Amino acid sequence: DGHLNNSLGSPVQADVCFPRLIVPFCGHIKGGMRPGKKILVMGIVDLNPESFGISLTCGESEDPPADVAIELKAVFTDRQFVRNSCVAGEWGEEQSSIPYFPFIPDQPFRVEILCEHPRFRIFVDGHQLFDFYHRIETLSAIDTIKINGDLQLTKLG
């Protein structure tokens, strides 16, 4: 119903409207992204994961594919957390350097994507992992979140 409950059980109107948290997941970001806006993804990594992905896109279109402002992909085989974007059907240069790989099979995680004026700032479990500079100029057009792969979602906000 688009409402989240706070700890007292009373409904809280969320800024992001999400149906049930089933993977693969696609949800609408109300009003799109803007500097200061934060997306929170909490979940539990599957027991034997290969990978999972979190994407912020400009709409849900598959054909032609929507622009991808940022795609985050945790790859367990080579312990990489890669990110990229796709503008007008063209994927950009993939970035993969990270100080450490933060995800552990069968363990919970918390990913925060903070939108700032020049970039997204990515935090995992409260630690800043990397920045990703915007490749899509119109931040408000970034209005969809897609999540797939080897994880269970526990909370989005």
UniProtKB/TrEMBL annotation:
Q: Name one Pfam family in it.
A: Gal-bind_lectin
At the top level, the lineage of the source is: Eukaryota
Q: Which PANTHER family match?
A: GALECTIN, GALECTIN-RELATED PROTEIN
Is Transmembrane among the key words of this record?
A: no
What is the protein named?
Galectin
Which GO-annotated molecular functions does the record name? carbohydrate binding
- Write down the species: Eubucco bourcierii
Q: Which UniProt keywords apply?
A: Lectin
Q: Which CDD domains match?
A: GLECT
All copies of domain Galectin, residue ranges: 25-157
Q: What does this protein do?
A: Does not bind lactose, and may not bind carbohydrates.
